């Protein structure tokens, strides 16, 4: 059976001036689909097998292509928005006909990139959606401490950042583990801090405390040097001020200051830090 939305192997049934017709069963013409001439390999013959992607063209006809789309049915990819219209948006997914994103499936802006999944609507048309939770699995191979790469697909100011890990698995960075601003579409490198009972991953963009302390202390010392050796902060500064200025929790900030004190690089005063 020929399916839209997936790459599949089909057989050449016959040649025409417009291209070749393909089917999943050799010698069966009924239900075959056209592969236009511009996509037909030069040496192809009847009964040859070809790997193609099947979708509907701008006139809603089934059509095959040897081009590879950026995503297939049920998969996730980050796509660029070409145009936003009164009925929805159109995304570049590597084929001649842009991919349609209905308004109900997410609000986007032209020229920006968003993680989306590919699905079929009630009429069988291929469409995109930004609501990708249902396409993410909780059955990942990752364990606590493993490094991951993911795409931010939703930001919740109260909870944290939702991440599509390796474009397959569900992950979340709680606010307490996030000390720099991120937006939808950003690629993040993080580590697994825990695996929940349902298999979903808790993540952090920060290293383990003893590793992170080295880079935090270097960052603070570099900032001191850049500002002439003095910063109007101390270990008594508020968590909000510290997060805003350094992107650190107060605990991480104090650990980094402790490292610099031990190395005799700074002096902590009542309302400021200075280099030695």
Q: Which key phrases capture this entry?
A:
276 residues, mainly beta, OB fold (Dihydrolipoamide Acetyltransferase, E2P), 5-stranded antiparallel β-sheet, 18 strands, elongated
Structure in words:
The structure is a single chain. With 276 residues, the chain is mainly β. The chain has four domains: 7-65, OB fold (Dihydrolipoamide Acetyltransferase, E2P); 76-133, Nucleic acid-binding proteins (OB fold (Dihydrolipoamide Acetyltransferase, E2P), Beta Barrel); 136-204, OB fold (Dihydrolipoamide Acetyltransferase, E2P) (Beta Barrel), CATH 2.40.50.140; 209-275, Winged helix-like DNA-binding domain superfamily/Winged helix DNA-binding domain (Arc Repressor Mutant, subunit A, Orthogonal Bundle), CATH 1.10.10.10. It has three helices and 18 strands. It has helices at residues 209-226, 239-246, 250-262, and strands at residues 7-16, 19-23, 33-36, 49-56, 62-65, 76-84, 88-92, 99-102, 113-120, 126-129, 147-156, 160-165, 169-174, 187-195, 201-204, 230-231, 266-268, 273-275. The strands form four sheets. Strands 3-2-1-4-5 form a five-stranded antiparallel beta sheet, with no helix packed on it. A five-stranded antiparallel beta sheet has the order 8-7-6-9-10, with no helix packed on it. Strands 11-12-13-15-14 form a five-stranded mixed barrel. Strand 7 (88-92) and strand 8 (99-102) form a beta hairpin. Helix 1 (209-226) packs across helix 3 (250-262). The longest helix has 18 residues, at 209-226. The protein is elongated, with a radius of gyration of 26 Å. The N and C termini lie far apart (75 Å). The mean pLDDT is 88.
